[in-house]
Every structure is written in structure tokens, then in C-alpha cells.
Specification:
Elements: E1 5-12, H1 23-38, E2 47-51, H2 58-65, E3 72-76, H3 83-95, E4 102-109, H4 140-155, H5 159-174, H6 188-193, E5 196-198, E6 201-202, E7 211-220, H7 221-224, E8 232-240, H8 260-270, E9 281-283, H9 291-298, H10 307-312, H11 329-332, H12 339-350, E10 362-366, E11 373-379
Parallel strand pairs: 2-3, 2-4, 9-10
Antiparallel strand pairs: 1-7, 1-8, 4-7, 5-6, 8-11, 10-11
């Protein structure tokens, strides 16, 4: 399916803390905006992709927006691991001739703390969480912090080295008028003095709790060349799950710091005509700050144990080794299970980012390092 499909439309709602709209209304707004951006009528949509975590039903969206007959739909699992997977699956349906116009969306209302799934206790656990949550790893932040504490120990880093992840993403968000943290500056002292959430992760190492929706539109290579927006071709696509994977907690494996991202990366590059050195910009899933250095290493931009040193020296800034999460990411723009990263990847190809990488031709987008995951490599003309 190399370069056989492209993202030609992107759309989003206002990002806020407590939206008055329902998730269905938010989804419809984002999808309509994406279709308008592409110059495609709703009646032409015949394939749908979303998340198993998505609470808006595809048939309700199809009815409300006036889609035609739908020939393909899919829902990708694992929350943060789903965005690129859902896009890749719809792209395959288009490349194989099953469908012609695809829409992928994520709508989410999590600005209210009571909506968090881990805010409700269960008396007994029967699934895989029984190996971690009874021992104190109650929230995703706890699971991520445990791995980061191991990383800091193994490679002799400190929280001072971690600070630049949050600082870099906040600077990108300060350039992005639509980011939730657009008007909120962040200093090194702010970071070091912030309240601890799960040692060593402080408040600014965590993603935002936010409301909103994002959607993208996909078509074939042939159709893409006739539309008004510059296409972002899906050059390669991969999903991955390592042979020792345990959701969010790979502690029992031979090396807890080798995640499923390594599996995804190898398969992504195997399909590509390009090497890692050709990639101009990356959008790494960032529910928590450790996922950025972990992803830098998994996707072969540096050796294991080197990423945090590179980041602390400005390596993910706009003029650094690899600009990363250039709209602010999940930690400073909005947290919508990574769909904002996809849209920013497209903007970099179009040349319309608020922190534009000059002459960007290849844009990498990844999903959650701690789950079975996926990635896409977007290519410009």
C-alpha cells in the first residue's frame, strides 16, 4: 500500500476543559470540518475508522452527517495505541479497492476528573491488571513512572534532564493559538517545583485532561492529486506487539525498556524507501513524558540510553536533531489519544504548522509506546 493512499482533509473542534457539546456533536463537527477541508461531500464517505474506546457510534455519525452506503468500518484497540492503527486499516481498505473515501475520528470528553476510568475502584480483578494494580500501579501515570525510574537509574539521569521534554513541548504550544496551553509559559523552576504525581513524574510530565474531537479524511493516490489540499501520502504503515508484551507494564520481560515500539519501528522501516536519517519531523505519542525518549530510541534516532541526554541538550527543539510534537503534543496542546499528532504530522507536510520544519518531506507519527501500537510515515510530494 506504499503511497497508494493519502490524508487529504483534517478537522478539529475547539479544545477546552468542559465542553457543553456531547461527544457525538463534537465528532460530527470535527468530521464535517475535515470533509470541508478536503472539499469532499459527506455522501461520498464509504469507510469509517475509530477506536474501541470511542463512545460515538459510526451509524449515528453516518446518519447525522448524511453519509452514503458504507462498505468498511473498523475500531482499533488500546486507546493510545489506536490512532495510526485506525488510519492504517482504513487506508488498506482504500488501497485494496473495498472503499474510496475514509474518515477516521476520535471524540473525547475527559476534562471532568470524575470521567477518568481509574477513578472508580473494583473489588476484584480478573484480567491482566491483577499483576500490577494490587501492588500500587493504579493509574497509567504510575506504570509509566516505574519505567522512567528504571531508565534514570540505568543510565544515570535525573529529573533535571527530564525537564526539557515538558519545556520543549510547551514552547511549541505557545506558538499554537489553538493549543490549550498556548498562553501558559513554563520555566525550568516551574517544572522542578511542580507537585509530584507519581515519582519521578510531576504535573507537567502528564498529558492534559481535555474535551474535543479530531478527524481526518483519506482517499486514493489518484483522487488525492485532484483535490485542493496538498496530500500527505501514507508511505508506510505498521502495527506491532512484541513477543513479551504486557499492557503498560513490560516489567516481566527480559528488558522492560524494550517495548512494542521496537517491533513496530522495524516493520515500518522494512516497508519504506527511506531510512531513519531521512525523517524531518516526528510526532511521538506523549501521554507521559517518558514515552518521548523511549520512542526516540525505539525508532532508531539514537542508541538505547542516549535519548534523554540528546533531549536535555535541545535535540527535540525546532532547530534540534529531530523536532518532536511541534504543536505541543498531548502534554501541551490537547489529549485526544494521539489524533492531534496525526493532524500535526499532516500540517508539517502541507507546510502550515505553527512551528514549521523547513522543507519537511517525511513526517513520522507514532502511537503509545506502552501498548500494542502502530505508526505511519507520511510523505509529501
Amino acid at each position: 500500500m506504499k503511497d497508494k493512499t493519502a490524508i487529504v482533509g483534517i478537522g478539529q473542534t475547539v479544545f477546552e476543559k468542559k465542553s457543553k457539546d456531547t461527544e457525538l456533536i463534537l465528532a460530527c463537527k470535527a468530521i464535517k470540518n475535515a470533509l470541508d477541508d478536503a472539499g469532499i461531500e459527506p455522501r461520498e464517505v464509504d469507510s469509517l475508522g475509530s477506536y474501541t474506546f470511542e463512545e460515538t457510534e459510526g451509524f449515528e455519525i453516518a446518519r447525522n452527517l448524511g453519509f452514503g452506503e458504507v462498505h468498511y468500518w473498523s475500531e482499533a484497540p488500546y486507546g493510545g495505541g489506536a490512532s495510526c492503527a485506525a488510519i492504517g486499516q482504513v487506508a488498506m481498505s482504500i488501497a485494496s479497492g473495498i472503499s474510496e473515501v475514509g474518515v477516521v475520528w476520535r471524540s473525547r470528553k475527559r476534562g471532568d476528573p470524575s470521567s477518568r476510568m481509574w477513578s472508580h475502584a473494583e473489588e476484584r480483578m480478573y484480567d491482566h491488571w491483577k499483576w500490577s494494580r494490587p501492588f500500587g500501579l493504579v493509574r497509567p501515570a504510575d506504570e509509566s513512572s516505574m519505567l522512567m525510574r528504571r531508565y534514570l537509574h540505568e543510565y544515570s539521569y535525573s529529573r533535571e534532564d527530564m525537564a526539557h521534554i515538558a519545556l520543549s513541548l510547551r514552547k511549541y504550544a505557545n506558538n499554537n493559538e489553538k493549543a490549550l496551553m498556548h498562553d501558559k509559559k513554563l520555566s525550568f523552576d516551574d517544572y522542578m517545583e511542580a507537585r509530584m504525581i507519581s515519582d519521578p513524574l510531576c504535573l507537567f510530565d502528564n498529558c492534559l485532561e481535555s474535551d474535543g474531537a479530531i478527524a481526518v479524511v483519506l482517499v486514493s493516490e489518484q483522487r488525492a492529486n485532484k483535490l485542493k489540499q496538498k496530500p500527505a501520502y501514507i508511505h508506510s504503515y505498521s502495527q506491532g506487539m512484541s513477543d513479551q508484551h504486557q499492557l503498560m507494564t513490560d516489567y516481566h520481560g527480559s528488558n522492560p525498556l524494550i517495548s512494542s515500539s521496537y517491533t513496530t519501528a522495524k516493520n515500518l522501516y522494512r516497508q519504506s524507501d527511506y531510512s531513519v536519517n531521512d525523517i524531518d519531523v516526528a510526532q511521538f505519542y506523549d501521554a507521559f513524558s517518558p514515552m518521548i525518549p523511549f520512542s526516540l530510541e525505539a525508532y532508531q534516532f539514537c542508541g538505547q540510553g542516549e535519548a534523554l541526554g540528546i533531549i536535555s541538550e535541545g535535540g527535540i527543539d525546532l532547530d534540534g536533531l529531530l523536532p518532536v510534537n511541534t504543536s505541543g503534543g498531548g502534554m501541551s496542546e490537547v489529549y485526544l489519544h494521539g489524533m492531534n499528532l496525526v493532524v500535526e504530522g499532516v500540517r508539517q507536510i502541507r507546510g502550515t504548522s505553527t512551528s514549521q520544519v523547513k522543507d519537511a518531506k517525511l513526517s513520522l507519527v507514532t502511537t503509545c509506546d506502552a501498548t500494542p501500537n502502530a505508526a505511519i510515515l507520511l510523505k509529501g510530494d
